[in-house]
Write a structure and sequence with these properties.
alpha+beta, Aminopeptidase, 2 domains, 13 helices
């Protein structure tokens, strides 16, 4: 007889380790799963390290059959979500489940925790936030995710939908062959921009990293303010993200566009570090640190990812937006191919109603390669 599923809130250090490790048990047989660095996951879950907890609270749950963990989930309430998105909206994330019964029991536990805190809607997955891993992969399971993107079993969508959830927003990533020169119209825009004395493009200066990170995140908070589900980053979160990104920042892959001396747009490109860490199986010790540091000296990768780009809102509906955006894309494309050996790029995620980015994808001959879905259910 198969033991019933029992869900318990994580309460001990051993259970917290089991929560992290369960991702390996759930995905070990998937050739396209990219093991995250366990130290990064543990840091994300640690309220003493992650400044997200300054404005949010969360609970972690494990599903058990006897002594065997068979699933996990988080439930969280973020005060900034309540302020900026909806006053009754709770989130869940980190979902892994061996079967529908485990998934349904975990979702029910997360929902009960959210109800107890006055939430009337449950939405997810967010692990933990809009700025971490967002969405359940529903298209594109046949190839690995790039750095900082999630990957899950194709079965999970059915598990979530059979629990009463409906999709409310799709997040897309776009793939392109970056060895192929972009269309002539892009090169014309680059030439126009370079001749415009009011526009200046520059690489970030890593020696002024904190200052540069604040400039970029300032543009981002303005550029994305009207996006679906947007929650601004706090200064502490900007500093935290900056510390995490600094080891993988390459000055020639992060550029800022200035207009009349004011930072007006930016684009961040990162090598796909999943290619560099896959053989570490999530472990930096005993030799992982040395391997990673050596590989980061001059990383050669097949793919690069553009996780973030933005243009100040006051320029977004003007002709200036194209003169600010497309040169950034072209400069980073060239650097990615010439200096890092990349052959493909991934842009995203991008909201399914972001018409501006859909136009960029069309002009750059990009195609949708993955779709991540946010689900919601009334409580």
């Amino acid at each position: 007889m198969i033991p019933p599923v029992v869900v318990r809130e994580v309460a001990t250090a051993a259970e917290r380790r089991a929560f992290v490790d369960l991702a390996w048990a759930a995905n070990r047989g998937d050739p396209h799963w990219a093991p995250p660095l366990k130290s990064e996951v543990r840091g994300l879950l640690d309220a003493r390290k992650n400044p997200w907890f300054e404005h949010a609270e969360a609970a972690l749950f494990l599903a058990w059959r006897g002594k065997q963990p068979v699933g996990r989930i988080s439930a969280q309430v973020d005060r900034l979500v309540l302020e900026h998105v909806a006053p009754d909206l709770g989130h869940w994330g980190f979902l892994e489940a061996a079967d529908p019964d485990a998934a349904h029991a975990l979702l029910a536990a997360a929902e009960n925790w959210l109800r107890a805190r006055g939430m009337r809607r449950a939405q997810g997955p967010f692990s933990f936030s809009y700025w971490d891993e967002a969405g359940l992969l529903v298209q594109g399971h046949d190839h690995p995710p790039t750095v900082m993107m999630g990957h899950n079993s194709p079965a999970y969508a059915a598990y979530v939908e059979s629990a009463g959830y409906e999709g409310v927003k799709d997040l897309r990533t776009y793939d392109l062959d970056i060895t192929i020169p972009l269309r002539p119209i892009v090169h014309k825009l680059v030439e126009l921009s370079e001749r415009n004395p009011r526009i200046r493009f520059r690489q970030v200066d890593k020696s002024r990293f904190d200052e540069e990170a604040a400039i970029i995140m300032g543009i981002l908070n303005d550029a994305w303010a009207r996006n679906w589900g947007f929650v601004p980053m706090t200064p502490a979160e900007i500093a935290y993200v900056g510390r995490k990104l600094k080891p993988i920042v390459f000055e020639d892959l992060i550029r800022i566009a200035e207009y009349d001396g004011e930072p007006a747009a930016f684009m961040i490109t990162v090598p796909d570090l999943n290619e560099l860490t896959r053989d570490m199986d999530g472990k930096l010790l005993p030799f992982g640190w040395a391997k990673l540091l050596w590989r980061l000296r001059r990383p050669q990768v097949r793919a690069v990812r553009v996780p973030l780009m933005g243009v100040l809102r006051k320029y977004q509906q003007s002709r200036l937006a194209s003169q600010l955006t497309f040169p950034l894309i072209e400069f980073n494309r060239r650097a990615s191919v010439e200096r890092y050996g990349a052959t493909r790029g991934e842009i995203g995620w991008v909201l399914d109603d972001n018409e501006g980015m859909k136009s960029v994808a069309q002009v750059t001959d990009s195609r949708v390669n993955k779709v991540y879905r946010i689900y919601e259910r009334a409580l």
